[in-house]
Design a protein that fits this description.
With 315 residues, this protein is of the alpha/beta class. Helices cover 42% and strands 11% of the residues. The strands form two sheets. A four-stranded parallel β-sheet has the order 5-4-6-7, sandwiched between helices. Strands 1-2-3 form a three-stranded antiparallel β-sheet, with helices on one face. A hairpin with a 2-residue loop joins strand 1 and strand 2. It is globular. The protein binds adenosine-3'-5'-diphosphate.
Length: 315
């Protein structure tokens, strides 16, 4: 076990290559990009959620951008803020704790004194590391997950959009599959990440809400209402049209049509262009990239890690 209080840089941590010359560092069984080690440690040591805070948690590529857009729209529906998604990428409206908030600036913590307002953040840090942080507060957490095969394929595409591809060459799908299955993958192991939040949602259902990308695709409206209820911003019967508006305005087609989300520009906080957060937005695209043997290999892992723990999901 790494003593989090003693970690200042990634120097003392175990490292493994995951793609090209790029490595990930291990903190208590989970793998992190070295760039985010110091800021992750700062989150774990310093972040004190307020009771009204909402934290959107996820493993990378499981629908974070969509969830941010939906929750931002639900919470801000009666304010001027509601139209901000037209001009701003969701990641600039809902900052990630270990990337923007505890990264280079602390600007997003400015409203710390406003105890009555809702601060909205996201994180990819696993529950196993955040347990104490969440236990210290009555804040609400929404965790989105996605089936492992689509998550892997989405991450593979995303990584191949990184600036580093110019130097390090592409990440080959065979390598991505190996890394995903071994768990040596940014944010990984995927299965432990998901099970941490799954179990937490069962232990603390008033504070931790789990939703899957697939159920959100299947009936977005129902789940937007459930999310709103959980977050303490329920829709009244006469607000059906508002729910429809939110579902439409956060759909893949609408969001991906905005100039900011089509942009080849890079945000200040990460090495991918804004447009790489929008690719296809469908369920089952893995069938176009994974062969039968790989599908069976990942399904076997899913049966072991999820079904074996009574979470009948992911195949
Ligand atoms: P694909 O690569 O399968 O298309 P994250 O936001 O966690 O990085 O996840 C990115 C995935 O969510 C990508 O999946 C992306 O296309 C999809 N996505 C982004 N916005 C979406 C939306 N509004 N509706 C559905 N899927 C969306």
């Amino acid at each position: 076990m790494v003593n989090i209080l003693e970690v200042v840089t990634d120097e003392s941590l175990r490292k493994e290559n995951w793609w090209g010359k790029n490595y990930v560092c291990q903190i208590n069984n989970f793998w992190f990009l070295p760039k985010f080690v110091p800021s992750t440690i700062r989150v774990l040591n310093e972040f004190k959620p307020l009771p009204n805070d909402v934290i959107l948690a996820s493993f990378p590529k499981t629908g974070t951008t969509w969830l941010k857009s939906l929750v931002f729209s639900i919470i801000n529906r009666s304010s001027k803020e509601s139209s901000l998604l037209v001009k701003h990428n969701a990641h600039d409206l809902v900052p990630t704790l270990e990337v923007q908030v505890f990264g280079t600036t602390r600007q997003y913590l400015d409203n710390e004194s406003h105890h009555s307002s809702t601060r909205l953040y996201s994180t990819h840090i696993p529950y196993q590391l955040l347990r104490k942080t969440f236990d210290s507060s009555n804040c609400r957490v929404v965790y989105i997950t996605r089936n492992p095969k689509d998550t892997l394929v989405s991450m593979w595409h995303f990584t191949n959009k990184w600036k580093a591809v110019d130097q390090d060459g592409p990440w080959h799908i065979e390598e991505a599959i190996e890394k995903f299955c071994s768990g040596v993958f940014p944010g990984g192991p995927y299965y432990d990440h998901v099970m941490g939040f799954k179990n937490a949602s069962l232990e603390k259902p008033k504070n931790i809400f789990l939703i899957t990308y697939e159920e959100l695709i299947k009936d977005t409206k129902i789940h937007v209402k459930r999310l709103a209820e959980f977050l303490g911003f329920p829709f009244m019967n006469h607000e059906e049209e508002e729910v429809d508006e939110i579902v439409k305005n956060c759909s893949f087609d609408i969001l991906s049509s905005y100039a900011v989300n089509k942009s080849e520009d890079f945000p200040s906080w990460f090495q991918v262009p804004y447009n790489s957060f929008f690719r296809q937005g469908v369920v089952g695209d893995y069938k176009n990239y994974l062969d039968a043997k790989t599908i069976e290999r990942i399904d076997a892992l899913t049966r072991d890690k999820f079904h074996g723990a009574d979470f009948m999901y992911g195949i």
